[in-house]
Amino acid sequence: MTAFAASADAEQITQTDLRHLPDAQVYVLGEFHDSAIQHQNQATAVEALAPKALVFEMLSPERIEKITPADRLDQTLFDTATSWSSSGWPDLSLYWPIFEAAPTAPIYGAWVQRDAVREAFSKGAAEVFGPEAMRYGLTSPLPEDEQSEREQLQFEAHCGAMPLEMMGGMVASQRLRDAQLAKVTLDALQKHGAPVAVITGNGHARTDWGMPVYVKRAAPEVDVLSIGQLESAPEGQPPYDLWLVTAPTDRGDPCEGFGQTQ
Description:
The structure is a single chain. This protein is of the alpha/beta class. The chain has 10 helices and 9 strands. α1 (36-49) packs parallel to α4, α7 packs across α8 and α8 (167-192) packs across α10. The two termini are 16 Å apart.
C-alpha cells in the first residue's frame, strides 16, 4: 500500500467514470509508464474528452516538428519520425491507443532535454527555466518539510544507490519538468482552447506539488482536473482530484538495475 498525506477532496472513480469526467479546461491524466491498462484508460478518457490538443511528457518539441499527418495514422511511421524506439520510453504500442483516440488533435511535447535536466540538478530549476521562472514559482524555495519529503522519496525511488545529499538536485530537476509541462500546456490552451489533455507520470500529476501546482501559479484562472492511476489501495487520500486503482504490472525488482535491493 502507498501512503499519502490526507486530501479530503480526492475521490475514487472507476474505469467507466473516465467516459464522464467533470468539466475542466485541463485534464492531467497520470500513469505508470509501463502499464498497458493505464494507457488504455487514458485513451478512454481522451476519446470521451475530444481534446483540442494533447500534451505528452514523452515527446520533445523538436520531435513533434518531425511528425506529418501521415505519421499520425501509422504507428511505424510515427515511431520513425519521433525516434520513439530509441528514446528510452516504454514501447510505443502501449501509448498508441491514446494517439488513435484523438487522431487530429495537435500534439505538444513537454520533454526536457537531458542537458537541461543536468543543469537544473547543479544550478537549480529557475536558472534553467529562464525569464518566466518567477511566474511559475521556481524562484521560491519549497517549504522545508516538502523539500525533505521529496528528497527522501527520490532517494527511495533510486533505491538508495545515490547519496541522500544529492537528492536536492533531483528535486530541482523534477520541478523543472513540472514547470515545463505547465508552460507547454498553457501554450496549447491559449492557442487551441479547452480542453487540453496531458499525458504524464503520476508524480507529475500530483495536485500537492506536481504540474497542476505550476499551472495554478502561472494561470490561477485555469480549471485543472488531475487523475492519478494507482496499482494498489492507498493509505490516506491520494494527491489527485480523482483516482483509480488498476491491476499491477509485473516489472520485477525495480532496484535490480541500480545494483542493489532495498
